[in-house]
Amino acid sequence: MSGIEHLLLHTCCAPCLIAPYQQLKAEGIRFSALWYNPNIHPYTEYKARLDTLKTYAEKEGFPLILQDEYGLVDFVTNVISDLERRCEYCYRVRLAAVARYASEHGFDAFSTTLLYSKYQKHELIQSIATLMAHRYRVRFFYRDWRELWQEGVRLSKAEQMYRQKYCGCIFSEEVRYLGSIK
Questions:
Q1: Collapsed DSSP state (helix, strand, coil) of residue 32
Q2: Residue 182 pLDDT
């Protein structure tokens, strides 16, 4: 057993949550999901992902904490001078928010569904989360959920969830459709 009474799980979107959720549920790990994704742009994309997550949380009955802060200006301001390191900034902002919330609200540990995606920088996420765990004095629950990738795709399609086509930020959208940042 994990020794965790209540996990705070940063959730980037419902399709990335669905397979880890099934695993946590099977293991008897109680969790609350936290939505904080000021990196997702444009607003229509942000709203589609948030609405899908709200619908799934309501259907499954797990607690969903919303830090509903669309952050286009702050995100762009903080990454424009070094676009190659935008993911580092993005992970740091979101993992700091979830670790701080977990610490301030009595959660045993925190984690993130970013660890599910085979497209994310897994080692960088793990490194930043470990740093935030130390900073906010709360345990980081590490789990490599990438092995669940195909199952998550299958489950999210079966649920007819909105499935995004890019990571989140406006720059990742450009890379998705044009191949690189021009």
A1: strand
A2: 61
Residues 14 and 160: their CA atoms lie apart, in Å, by 11
Quickly list DSSP for 29-71: --EEEEE--TT--SHHHHHHHHHHHHHHHHHHT--EEE-----
First-to-last alpha carbon distance for the chain, in angstroms, is: 48
d(CA 99, CA 102): 5
> What percent of the residues of the chain are helix, what percent strand, and what percent coil, each to the nearest 5?
55, 10, 35
Q: Mind listing the pLDDT tens digit for each residue in 90-128?
A: 999 999 999 999 999 999 999 999 999 999 999 999 999
By CB atoms closer than 10 A (0-12, 13-18, 19+), residue 106 is exposed
The answer to whether 156 and 21 are in contact (CB under 8 A) is: no
Domain 7-178 indexed as CATH 3.50.50.60? no
Respond yes or no on whether the N-terminal peptide bond of residue 42 is cis (omega within 30° of 0): yes
Q: 56: closest CA among 113, 108, 107?
A: 113
The candidate with the shortest Cα–Cα distance to 144, out of 159, 129, 160, is 129
The pTM of this model reads 0.94
| C-alpha span between 78 and 44 (Å, rounded) | 21
